[in-house]
Known about the structure:
By secondary structure, the chain is mostly beta strands. About 0% of the residues lie in helices and about 55% in strands. The protein is built from no helices and 13 strands. The strands form two sheets. Strands 1, 2, 4, 5, 6, 7, 11 and 13 form an eight-stranded antiparallel sheet that branches. The mean pLDDT is about 90.
Amino acid sequence: RSELRHMCNPPNTKDNWFVGSGVNELWAKIRVDLNSSSLIKVIVFQIHGISVDSNPPKPLVKLYWYKGSLFAIITEADGSEPTHSLASNVNYNIFDINVKVNENGILTIFANNQEYVNKDVSYFKFGCYFKQGDYIQCNDPSCYAKTHTYCLTVSNSGDCKS
């Protein structure tokens, strides 16, 4: 597992952006290169939340590659986590991801320049940060996955605060 964690005010990990506080956006060009089985799920991007107590919330968004296609899990206000189908047949090719939460709390997710999600997530009241990496979802120690990140851009126009 490897990851890049966005920080609003490095090295302070307590300052994060909030849904509805300006425009917060990540764009990446990624490729899943190989894995031990095409049946392995590989999470390549997340929007994590930070809580003020010891009970961290579920990530707002988890974007993953599975059997050559892309999917997103979005945590709902009631805590459920429905899966949204994004681009199919990306296979082992390079793909673009653009994830944005605007000043009105609207989440949009684009894959290869096509919009797949446009959803109000203003219910998510936790501090947020972007994570991009290779999170293999497999309990077998022989499982492996390799991803490439060719370009990664993050922008925040809102306040970053604790």
